[in-house]
Structures are given as structure tokens and as C-alpha cells.
Write a structure and sequence with these properties.
The complex is a heterodimer. By secondary structure, chain A is α/β, with parallel strands linked by helices. Chain A is about 35% helix and about 25% strand. Chain A starts with 5 loop residues before the first strand and ends with a helix. Chain B has 15 helices and no strands. Classes of the chains: A alpha/beta, B mainly alpha. Chain A: It comes from Pontivivens marinum.
Chain lengths: ~500, ~375
């Protein structure tokens, strides 16, 4: 019986009054893929940061290969054979693959000798693990799937025996994700240990040997993956039964509310981000836009919302109450932006102040130059109550709400203005499972009340669960329209730029 | 981790810790040149607060620093670093002086004051709005442009005073003295509590500075425009999302910032020297940066920070007089240390204090 690759005992860590990790035990066997799931804020990232030396645990012990260790920084972690692939890549984009892999392990003041060695080692690793990447390619030119492989190569190059991957599939197409899983399988076959952090239950089921579930800073269960199922894991994560699929009736589409005609968006450096996009959204339906992140959805959304540049083409809103000369949100179009931290909220502001973001000039929040503080507070309270934002404290800073509650604040603000058309980006990104359920239900309700909804999401499951029609975007182009009953493979092919007629 | 400390820690304890560190280091410097730091502190405090005339000087400097501090603070709220307070105050002084020169034959000070305020504020506003426009339209960074505008203002004022404002036949490079009826009144009401204060340059501008603080508070936290400024300053993408115009926010904020700096001109020009002279701001534009940093861009704390620097200015002059080994340059060193610790390194102690708090809370929890 070999010692486990990692054994944590009684790990606790708090930040101020927040117990991010409480008395965590975890045993990861050598040569296995071990999944760690949990909602946002459950403490997964903190735990991995402790393992990788970013934080020190307040209490508890860490043993690697049976040896008790202290990991005081990431160098120590690397020394112990622990490698990490971050959710946001830590790569130098203008450097080549080889240069990135060598970074921090150059082997001397002059590069030449180290470079030759690194090249040899890199070739060996690539062959061994099917990690094919051109060592001389510029990292910035590579698609994300390949960039991720560079991250994995980097870790292996430093002699990682234990590889931690933090939400690795968030940026990948289904195809790329499958390839990643094959690589992970290869690593396992070579005796490496993989820790996979994710909130996607299906990934856990597809690839892991064991799975540990975290909730509110505690490790609530560890199971052999073979002995559990999606329903049980979801219940363990949330602490109660969850409906993973929203019930929805047939859509009753009405008149066209939003029409986009031959829309082109060109960015500052002249790249065409949206190419000749044309579609309509009718009252009472949800149109979903699927695609891997970065394929023009953001630009499309911003152009429709009236805050991004339009190179040519038109966006037209029909039969909408409100003054058409006004800026679109005051004209019957609600916009829940993709990134609530970067755009949808001012996280430094209180919830109350965020209630009026975009509506700060509306007469209901004060006539003339001054803001009517009482009216703002009133609106904020009412919205928080109707959308069950917790805690319902309008004076709390937006940053201090959980992801799900932040999203509810944004949704509440946009929906309460009673727009005819609602465009929504990534409604459940970084939102915990429990809140996803209620946000999805709310969107279906809105649809049934006759709103026209345009939904952009990189979560294919979400698009398929909510949409009545699905448009798939790839490299700025709408590749095709499919119904919600289309298979994942069919949509996946469109997402990677293969049209139905080409595939046939 | 985003840790929120109680307000009194952020606004009270931390600045105090920074200040103490600055004084300890300054004390070591004083020790190093063989003088007694405790005695030096005594001179500073006595010089700044010990007698009416000294208090008056302290308030006079404080007034300057409140205006320039507010100017920097307002721009900060739109995440613009306006370090051109010096030039804006200089131009503001010109505006104030021009108002006095034009009207002192006809109107008493209270009749001139609204015009002086208008001209001083608009001269300063224009001087700051140009960098604002350059940034909003062309992306020229205001740090660069505002400091360049300082130099332009120095040359411009030199030229204007020499060519147009100087009294012919007189060697001093300054305008004629205003009629006495145009002079801003001294703080004579305080003569009862603080005898001698009216012999100092302290004048009504101090009250105007306090009113400006209230104005800034209302502008930033109570108006729709202030909300837009803060949204833009905190998160430009959110501002774009909310339909807030960058150009409008940046240019208007810079103009208001410049107007506040320009109003500083009231104090030395109409309140003290009663003429237009060379180097009106005397570094107050730069001290304003430290004041705004230390005062966390909040008008109330800016008053205290301005008072601190006013104290250092006036007390420092007294110190240089009483302890000749400590020269004027030494005072600048001490002020520099305060700026360094209280301004540039304002967050130095924060992690430690935050840790102490989290430990205490854990112990209590």
C-alpha cells in the first residue's frame, strides 16, 4: 500500500470573520484523478491555494507522499512536485511556447544551453502525453485549448507529479475539453496524480476516479465516482435537492421585437469581431447564442445594447414603449452584461448605489441635479425583496455579496425597469447551483410574460435548457440556427466552425 | 481578499500610524544632526498654535492646502491624477487679481468677491479642462499634460506680469497694490479668542475654503453628476455600460478640479499680498496632492490633512528660526517624510492592522 499523494488533515483557514476552510480532511491516492466540486465560495480555491503555497493554513497538516511538509510558497510546492494550471493562464503571450515553458527554470544566466535542453525535454514530454504543441509558436497566437496545454507542459517540465487544474474547461469547446480529458487520462496512466477543480458535475462523472464535495468551507463528502451520480453530488453541493432541468412549456412567440440586420463590429485594431450577423428575437421567446467564449458574442451583445461600436448594419427595436431618441435602456431594452464585476456592478459601491447604475438620470431617482436618496433606497429595498437577494441589506458593498446574489442585484435592476427586450450575457457565470435554478426559472417566467429575450452563454447546457432557438457563433459569424433538441455534437461542431453541410 | 476595516481604522488609526512613523523617522534625522527632536517638536507646535499670529499663519497655509487638496481629490474621484494644481492656482490667482485691478476703484471687497471667485475659478477651470479634453479626445495622460501645463503657466505669468501688469518704472515684478477697500477682511472676529490673529495673513478665504468643502461633498455624494463621476472613477467599463459619457465626466471633473485650485488664488492675492506677484501658489499645488492622498479624497479629512501641513509649514518656519542647525531644507525633509509615509505609502501598515483585526475577531468569534 503506497502512501497517498496528498493527505490533508484538519486544514483550517479564515479571512477575518470568514472561515474559508474549516477542518478539512482530504486524501488523494497516487495515480488517480480526484475531483473537487463545490459552489462558488465553498472554499475550493482557498484549499488549492494552501496546497500551492499561496496561503498558509491556520491549522492542520499537509503530507505529500506520506511526508509531512510545510508549503510556504509556490517554489516549495513546485519542489514537492505539485504543479498548478490556473483558470486564468499565467503565460507571457509574446513569448514562444519554449520560452514560456523555460520561464523561471532557465538554467543559468545565458539562455542557449538551457534552451537546447528545454527543447529536448519538451519533445519527450509532448510525445509521452500527446500534448502536441509547436515549441516555436508564439503563445499569443495559439487557441486557448493549446495555451492550456502549454500550462500543463510548464508544470510537467518542472517535474510535477501532482497536477492541480482549476476550472480547466471553462474556456474550451466540447471537443477541446474531450482532448483535455484524454491528456489527463494519459497522465494518470503514467502514474501522475490529478486534482480537478470544477463546478461542472458532468466532468466529474466523465473523468474522475474519486470526488470530494465542498460546501461552505467544509468537506462534506468523498465518494468513488462510480458509486455516485449527478443528483447526489448536486444535493451534496447545495445541501438540498436541486432541480437541474427547468420545466418550461412551449414558447408562444409574438411580434418581432428586436431585429439585427447585417451587423458588423470591427475592433480598434481593425479585426472583424462580428461578421454580417442577422437575426430576430420575438416577444415571448428566448433566443440563445452558443459559442466558445471570445467568438464575438461579447461584441455582439454590446453592439445591441448600444454601448459598443457598430461598423455597419442595423439594430432595430420594434413596438417599444419609450422614447426612441433616448439611450436604449431608457427605451425598453434591459441589458444584463456578461461580466458583472467588470461592467454590471461597481463592486466598491453599495447595493443601493448599484440599483441606479444606468438609470441614474431617471426622474424617479430625483428631479434636477440631485439624487433622491430616499427613492434610491426604496427601489433598492423593493428589488432586493422581490429577487430574494441575501442579505437584504442595501448598504452592503456589492463586492460582499456572493456571486449569485450579485447577479440577482443586476437582474433585479434590469428586469424591474420592465423592458420589452432583455439581453442577457452569462446569466449564471460564477453563480452557485441553488441560485442558477431560481435565475433560470425567472427567465422562463419573463419569457412567458411576453418579453423578448436574447441569451448569450458559454454554458452549452444552459443554452439548451432555456432557449427556444439556438444560434451558434464561431469567429464572429453565426454558423447556423438549431432547435433546443439538437444534439450536443451537432452544436459542438458548429461551435468549432464546422457547418452542417461541411460535416456531412 | 477584500477586507473591510472599520471606518475609524481606515480614516483614524492608519493615518495616525503613518504620521507617527513619519515623525519618528524625522526625529531620527534631527537626532543625526545632533539636535533634540523633542525640543524641535515643541517649537513646531508652539510656532503653529502658541500665539495668535502663528495660528493665523497656520490657518493661512491651511486655506491654500484645503483648496488644492480638494482640487486633487475631485479629480481622483474620476480616477484622474491632476498634478497641475500649481499652474491652475497660479492662473486662478491671475483671475482674482484681474478682478481686483479692474474693480477696486468702484467696488468694496464684497462687491468684487463674486467676480474674483468667478474669474479665479474659471481661469483655473480652463487651465485644467484643456488637459481633460486632451485626455478624453486623444488619450494624452493628464499626469503628463497637467505637469506640463504648470511650466506653461509659469512662463505665461512671467510674461504677463512683466509685459502688462508691472508698474512702469518700478523694479519689482508685480502688479500695483489693490485699493485697500478691495482687500479681503482678516479674521478679526477671532481676535477675542486669539489675540494677534489679525496681524497674520489669515483672512476670510479660510471660510470660503470650508464652504468649498461642503460644496465638494454635495457634488460628489449627492448629485447625479457626482454619482457618474464616482462610477467612472471606480469602473470605467461600468460607466460605459451605464451610458455615462467619458468626455463629459473627465472634462467637467477636471474643470471643477481646476476651479477649486484656482480659488486658492483668493487667499494670497486678495487676502494677503493684495497684488499679483510671481509664484503665487508657492508649492501649495503640490502639497495638495499629499493632502488629498492623506485625506482619502474626502472633504472632511482633507481639512485635517490640510491643517497638518499648515502646521508643518508654519511650525517649521518657527523651528528654523529657533534652532538654526535645523535649516529650512530640513523642514522640507520632514514634510517630505510626512508625504512619503502618509501619502505615497498610505497602505504600508494596512496588512498588519488587518491581520491584527482578523486575529482579534477570530479570538472573539
Amino acid at each position: 500500500m503506497t502512501a497517498p499523494a496528498i493527505q490533508l488533515q484538519g486544514i483550517s483557514k479564515s479571512f477575518g470573520a470568514v472561515h474559508a476552510n474549516r477542518d478539512i480532511d482530504l486524501k488523494v491516492d497516487k495515480g488517480t484523478i480526484h475531483g473537487i466540486i463545490g459552489e462558488n465560495g465553498a472554499g475550493k480555491s482557498t484549499l488549492m491555494s494552501i496546497l500551492y503555497g499561496f496561503y498558509q493554513a491556520d491549522r492542520g497538516t499537509i503530507a505529500v507522499d506520506g511526508q509531512q511538509v510545510t508549503i510556504k510558497d509556490s517554489d516549495a510546492a513546485i519542489g514537492l512536485g505539485i504543479g498548478m494550471v490556473h483558470q486564468h493562464f499565467m503565460l507571457v503571450e509574446p513569448f514562444t511556447v519554449l520560452e514560456n515553458v523555460m520561464l523561471g527554470a532557465e538554467g543559468g544566466a545565458l539562455l542557449n544551453k538551457g534552451r537546447a535542453q528545454a527543447r529536448k525535454e519538451l519533445q519527450r514530454l509532448e510525445e509521452e502525453y500527446e500534448l502536441n504543441v509547436d515549441p516555436d509558436a508564439i503563445v499569443g497566437d495559439l487557441p486557448v485549448g493549446l495555451q492550456q496545454r502549454v500550462e500543463i507542459l510548464k508544470a510537467l517540465y518542472r517535474g510535477a507529479e501532482i497536477l492541480i487544474l482549476d476550472e480547466p474547461t471553462g474556456v474550451l469547446t466540447p471537443d477541446e475539453a474531450d482532448h483535455l480529458f484524454r491528456i489527463l487520462g494519459q497522465l494518470r496512466a503514467q502514474g501522475k496524480t490529478v486534482l480537478l477543480i470544477t463546478h461542472k458535475l458532468r466532468e466529474i462523472m466523465a473523468i474522475t476516479d474519486d470526488v470530494s464535495v465542498m460546501r461552505q468551507g467544509q468537506m462534506v463528502a468523498t465518494r468513488h465516482t462510480a458509486d455516485t451520480g449527478v443528483e447526489e453530488l448536486a444535493e451534496l453541493m447545495v445541501g438540498r435537492r436541486v432541480l437541474l432541468q427547468v420545466d418550461k412549456g412551449e414558447a408562444q412567440p409574438g411580434a418581432t421585437k428586436l431585429e439585427v440586420r447585417n451587423l458588423e463590429v470591427v475592433d480598434e485594431i481593425g479585426v472583424r469581431r462580428v461578421k454580417d450577423a442577422s437575426f430576430t428575437v420575438r416577444a415571448g421567446e428566448i433566443v440563445g447564442i452558443a459559442g466558445v467564449s471570445g467568438n464575438g458574442q461579447s461584441e455582439l451583445l454590446e453592439a445591441i445594447a448600444g454601448i459598443g461600436p457598430i461598423a455597419s448594419g442595423e439594430v432595430e427595436l420594434f413596438d417599444i414603449e419609450g422614447d426612441p431618441t433616448k439611450w436604449r435602456p431608457q427605451h425598453g431594452l434591459g441589458h444584463v452584461p456578461e461580466d458583472r464585476h467588470r461592467m454590471g456592478l461597481v463592486t466598491k459601491f453599495t447595493a443601493r448605489e448599484n440599483t441606479i447604475l444606468g438609470y441614474q438620470r431617471d426622474a424617479e431617482f430625483g428631479s434636477g441635479l440631485f439624487l433622491d436618496q430616499a427613492a434610491v433606497l426604496e427601489a433598492s429595498k423593493a428589488q432586493m425583496e422581490r429577487f430574494d437577494v441575501r442579505p437584504p441589506d442595501p448598504s452592503l458593498k456589492a463586492a460582499n455579496f456572493s456571486g449569485g446574489n450579485q447577479q440577482k442585484i443586476v437582474l433585479a435592476r434590469e428586469i424591474e425597469q420592465d423592458p420589452d427586450v432583455l439581453i442577457i450575457g452569462q446569466p449564471t457565470r460564477g453563480v452557485d447551483v441553488g441560485a442558477i435554478e431560481s435565475i433560470h426559472r425567472r427567465l422562463i417566467e419573463l419569457r412567458d410574460s411576453g418579453k423578448a429575450i436574447l441569451l448569450v452563454s458559454v454554458e452549452l447546457d444552459e443554452i439548451r435548457a432555456l432557449s427556444d432557438r439556438i444560434l451558434v457563433m464561431f469567429a464572429g459569424e453565426i454558423m447556423g440556427e438549431v432547435g433546443p433538441e439538437a444534439s450536443e455534437r451537432e452544436i459542438g461542431l458548429l461551435m468549432s466552425g464546422v457547418r452542417a453541410e461541411d460535416a456531412a | 481578499m477584500n477586507k473591510d476595516l472599520p471606518g475609524w481604522v481606515d480614516f483614524g488609526l492608519l493615518p495616525l500610524l503613518n504620521l507617527l512613523t513619519a515623525f519618528v523617522v524625522a526625529g531620527l534625522v534631527v537626532l543625526a544632526i545632533g539636535e533634540d527632536p523633542i525640543e524641535a517638536v515643541g517649537h513646531i507646535i508652539y510656532g503653529a498654535f502658541g500665539y495668535g499670529n502663528g495660528v493665523g499663519y497656520t490657518l493661512f497655509y491651511t486655506t491654500n492646502f484645503i483648496f488644492t487638496g480638494l482640487a486633487v481629490a475631485v479629480a481622483f474621484h474620476a480616477s484622474q491624477f491632476n498634478i497641475g494644481g500649481e499652474g491652475q492656482a497660479y492662473l486662478g490667482g491671475l483671475g482674482v487679481g484681474v478682478a481686483c485691478l479692474m474693480l477696486d476703484q468702484y467696488l468694496p471687497w464684497w462687491g468684487i468677491l463674486p467676480v474674483a471667485i468667478l474669474l479665479g475659478a474659471s481661469f483655473g477651470a480652463i487651465w485644467a479642462a484643456i488637459p481633460g479634453i486632451l485626455y478624453a479626445k486623444r488619450g494624452a495622460h493628464v499626469v503628463i499634460t497637467t505637469i506640463m501645463f504648470n511650466f506653461i503657466s509659469f512662463s505665461l505669468m512671467n510674461y504677463l506680469i512683466n509685459e502688462y501688469l508691472k508698474v512702469p518704472g518700478n523694479a519689482s515684478v508685480q502688479s500695483r497694490t489693490f485699493e485697500q477697500t478691495a482687500w479681503m477682511p482678516k479674521l478679526t472676529w477671532f481676535e477675542g479668542v486669539m489675540p494677534g490673529i489679525s496681524t497674520s495673513p489669515a483672512n476670510l478665504s479660510f471660510i470660503i475654503a470650508l464652504i468649498a468643502c461642503v460644496f465638494v461633498y454635495i457634488l460628489i455624494w449627492r448629485t447625479k453628476f457626482g454619482y457618474e463621476v464616482r462610477v467612472y472613477g471606480a469602473n470605467p467599463s461600468a460607466a460605459r455600460y451605464a451610458g455615462i459619457s467619458t468626455t463629459r465626466v473627465v472634462v467637467l471633473t477636471m474643470a471643477i478640479s481646476g476651479a477649486l485650485a484656482g480659488l486658492m488664488g483668493l487667499n494670497p492675492v486678495m487676502g494677503d499680498q493684495t497684488r499679483i506677484f510671481l509664484d503665487i501658489p508657492q508649492q501649495a499645488g503640490f502639497v495638495g496632492i499629499a493632502v488629498a492622498l492623506m485625506g482619502r479624497s474626502h472633504p472632511l479629512w482633507i481639512v485635517f490633512a490640510a491643517l497638518l501641513f499648515g502646521t508643518l509649514y508654519q511650525g517649521g518656519a518657527e523651528l528654523a528660526f529657533e534652532m538654526p542647525a535645523i535649516t529650512r531644507d530640513m523642514i522640507v525633509v520632514i514634510q517630505g517624510l510626512v508625504i512619503l509615509f502618509a501619502g505615497a505609502m498610505e497602505f504600508m501598515f494596512r496588512p498588519w492592522v488587518a491581520r491584527a483585526f482578523s486575529m482579534r475577531e477570530t479570538a472573539n468569534g
